[in-house]
Amino acid sequence: MGLFNRRAKQPGPDGSASNGSREKANGSSSATPSTGTTALPQYNHNGHEVTRRIQPDGESGRRGINPGQFLQIIWRSSCSVSSWVNILWPFVPAAIALHFIHGDHHLWTFAINYIAMVPAANLLGFAGQEFARKMPKVAGIIIETTLGSVVEIVLFMVLIAKDNGTGQAGHGSKIAVIQAAILGSILTNLLLCLGCCFLAGGIKHKKQRFHPIISEVGSGLILVAGFALLIPSAFFSSLIGSTVTEGEGYTETKLRSDTVNISHGVSIILMVAFLIFLLYNCVSHDNIFAEVLEADEEADRDRHRDLRKAKLTMTECAVAILIALTFISLIAVFLVEEIEFVVEHGVPDNFLGLILVPLVEKAAEHLTAIDEAYDNQINFALYHCLGPSIQTALFNAPLVVIVGWGLSKPMDLNFEIFQVVLLVLAILVVGNFLRDGSSDYLEGSLLVLVYIIIAVTAWFYPNSELTTSNGRPSTETGTEGTEALLQAAKMLMS
């Protein structure tokens, strides 16, 4: 989640605003830039007249939609790395066409749609960034945050809608994939994305320092969210060994029902926490974040080129968002329909949820964060890594639980003990690296290597219908699971 607190920039000493004013369509020499206080109208850094309710940094100087410029700006995207993703756009129509072609090509359909999701998500991220530039600070933050997680939310909604509702592992159940994808999304941001940012920034700048307000708030919220996500699993694991199959006593059915109810309550509380987090960033402490991130913008090596780039109009932003959402929704449906066949052909559901799904849903955002770190905007990059993790834990995961509640699907936060331990260890590792307020390529390399270790382990982890810590183990197994979760909780609290 990025916080783009933009202010009107005054014309620089090189007269760039004056030169830009001559680029206006009417070419009037009387349209001189304002120096900032009383003269109207005002002009931004490119000499474009600032439209009412449009922030100067987002002013395009145009109205409506121009197809040629629209396609050119979209192709250029937010950065060089992100623009390379647009080479994958031919996969989008191919993915849609392949879905409607009859035949036994399920793996090909999954693979093509998987690749096609990347440019569609990249377009949504870029359009959301352009739209946020034009909006007031609070509205821009909320809109950009929401759009940045739309791919993940759409995938979660499609998965829960297509779940068979039995709560039993096996064919037709999507809950195990959703749970793995929730934690996988957090792990991908904390380990892979943050590691790549530290690596790219460290290679270029040797050592980068970030502001404590970014790392402390982010790591603190991740710690609390991880603890909250652990509670339903701890409750289930501590009692499963003492339940009875039927008759008098505390039955497994009652335990599962209570676990689902606890998950509903925890989800509501986490969503309240997310609202408080937004208020903290957008209202009460917005000036602190504004100063930190504005200083980061000034440190951007490419800032002068970024300011001079052509911008999308408000209409073009809306059109681009609608186009991206349409493609993302279609591709998400096609992907989910092929999950059963992919799992049956040897791809473990834990690997699918922990690794494959988060990689494709976050690819575009990760590229942007890595580019920011390379350009010495380490605070922006750090927020683009911690922010989505916070939103997944405090909003996206609770949202899918609440939606499952409304659809009478037994979606809960009772994760596999293996997954919970991975989350706890990732939070501890990242928190330790953020503690000193600086980063280098060594820390980045270690984070990436830890993620690779998790990916290798997830590949060999058996599917939930074969063995699971969420099933009905023996008393001894249940005790071991409880001890593992207690140990994880102790590590979080230490």
From TrEMBL:
Similarity section: Belongs to the Ca(2+):cation antiporter (CaCA) (TC 2.A.19) family.
Q: Identify its membrane topology class.
A: Multi-pass membrane protein
Task: Decide whether keyword Calcium is in the record.
Answer: yes
Species annotation: Exophiala xenobiotica
**Sodium/calcium exchanger membrane region domain sequence ranges:** 106-281, 319-459
What are the protein's UniProt keywords?
Answer: Antiport, Calcium, Calcium transport, Ion transport, Membrane, Transmembrane, Transmembrane helix, Transport, Vacuole
> Pfam families annotated for this entry?
Na_Ca_ex (PF01699)
**What does this protein do, in the record's words?**
Has a role in promoting intracellular calcium ion sequestration via the exchange of calcium ions for hydrogen ions across the vacuolar membrane. Involved also in manganese ion homeostasis via its uptake into the vacuole.
What InterPro entries does this protein map onto? CaH_exchang, CAX-like, NaCa_Exmemb, NCX_ion-bd_dom_sf
Gene Ontology BP, a term: intracellular calcium ion homeostasis
Q: Where in the cell is it found?
A: Endomembrane system; Vacuole membrane
What is the name listed in the Swiss-Prot or TrEMBL entry for this protein? Vacuolar calcium ion transporter
Q: Which residues cross the membrane?
A: 81-101, 107-126, 138-160, 180-200, 221-242, 262-280, 317-336, 417-434, 441-461
Q: Where is the composition biased (Low complexity)?
A: 27-39
What GO cellular-component annotations does this UniProt entry give? endomembrane system; fungal-type vacuole membrane
- Recorded superkingdom: Eukaryota
Annotated Basic and acidic residues bias: 46-62
Task: Note down the stretches annotated as region Disordered.
Answer: 1-63
Q: What GO annotations for molecular function exist for this entry?
A: calcium:proton antiporter activity
